[in-house]
Amino acid sequence: MWTHAKWPGRFLPPHLAAGERLGAYATWCNAVEGNTTFYATPSRDTVESWARQTPPDFRFVVKLPKPVTHERRLADVDEPMRAFLEAMAPIESRTHALWVQLPGSFGPGEVGALAAFLRRVPRSYRCAVEVRHPAFFADDHAGRLLERVLDAAGAEWVPFDTTALFAAPPASDAERDAWTKKPRLPRRSRALTGHPIVRYLGRDATERTVEGWRPWLDTVVAWLREGRSPTLFVHTPDNADALELARRFHDEVRARLPELEPLPEPMPLPAEDEPLTLF
Fold first, then answer.
1. Could you tell me which residues belong to the region Disordered (predicted)?
2. CA–CA distance from 265 to each of 71, 80, 186, 213, 269 (Å)?
3. Whole-number pLDDT of residue 97
4. In 6, 85, 104, 146, which residue has its Cα 20 to 30 A from 205's Cα atom?
5. Cα 277 to Cα 85: distance, rounded to the nearest angstrom
6. Phi and psi of 73, rounded to 5°?
7. Is residue 271 over pLDDT 90?
């Protein structure tokens, strides 16, 4: 996600053309969740524009299409996967992971389908799997089974941490909506690979979001000291402050590890008194 109605004019220059928005986002953050790919595989031209707008070390975590994960549940998906990977080819070197987000009904009984699917993914791609079935978190046997399958494929388990969201009753319309849609699962912070990926969902109140990510500061710093290369995405129910919050998390990590590379300087906004032009 690199566009949001509340970002232009506040974090990003207003009135950017579609082919410039990702480039502006990439001056704020060095990684992005490619969520739109779940709903439709983009054209190759579109993906080529993503490559043009981002530096070589930018990280894309692209979600696999809905027909692959939710409709066919990873079975008989060679054709849609081939079409998807052909479209993604322009950013193959920047695809940090293929994000395999599975439906909440995908449980331990289907782990075999996941194992077979992961064996067929080209080795040039890294996979990161997000599960939402409660059994993987409550049943030790199910959790270990999933870890073995992921470990065999060199794939990561993506935690979606919603504990801050559910720590207190919702206080905004966006939070109330998130309460009805987001999974309520325990926090999980065990990395399986050298490239752990975390999805963190806080609250619309900044102080609650910051308080909720404290455990992740310790975890991310420890991973970096172990030589891992983690990626953490910060969300809130309305996502209005997500860019600023992501940079704040990065700054808090750098305060503990000054050797960590800084994020790029954000693209400057036009001065308020700058005249508008048509061309």
1. 259-279
2. 41, 38, 35, 24, 12
3. 98
4. 104
5. 40
6. 55, 45
7. no
Q: Say how far apart CA 232 and CA 54 lie, in whole Å.
A: 18
Q: How far apart are the first and last CA of the chain?
A: 28
Q: What distance lies between CA 258 and its chain's CA centroid?
A: 24
Q: Where are the alpha helices (DSSP H) in the chain?
A: 21-25, 44-53, 66, 78-88, 111-120, 135-138, 140-153, 173-181, 206-212, 214-225, 242-256
pLDDT in tens, 67-89: 999 999 999 999 999 999 999 99
Strand order across the 31-34 sheet: 31-34, 59-63, 95-101, 127-130, 156-157
Residues ≥6 apart with Cβ < 8 Å to 47: 87, 88, 89, 90, 91
Report all structural domains of the chain as residue ranges with CATH numbers, in order of start: 1-158 (3.20.20.410), 159-260 (no CATH)
pTM (2 decimals)?
0.94
How many other CB atoms are there within 10 angstroms of residue 53's CB atom? 17
Helix, strand, coil shares of the chain, percent, nearest 5, are 45, 15, 45
Q: Left if phi > 0, otherwise alpha if psi is -120 to 50, otherwise beta: which for 2?
A: alpha
Question: What per-residue confidence (pLDDT) applies to 127?
Answer: 98
Calculated CA dihedral for residues 40, 121, 181, 46, nearest 10 degrees:
-30
Residues in the chain: 279
Q: For residues 211 and 223, give the distance between their C-alpha atoms in angstroms, rounded to a whole number.
A: 20
Only one residue has tokens 């910060």, namely: 234
State the helix-helix crossing angle for 140-153 and 111-120, rounded to 10 degrees: 10
Q: Which residue has the tokens 């207003």?
A: 14
Place of tokens 């409550």: 138
Tell me, what's the pLDDT at 53?
97
Burial class of 183 by CB neighbour count within 10 A (0 to 12, 13 to 18, 19+): middle
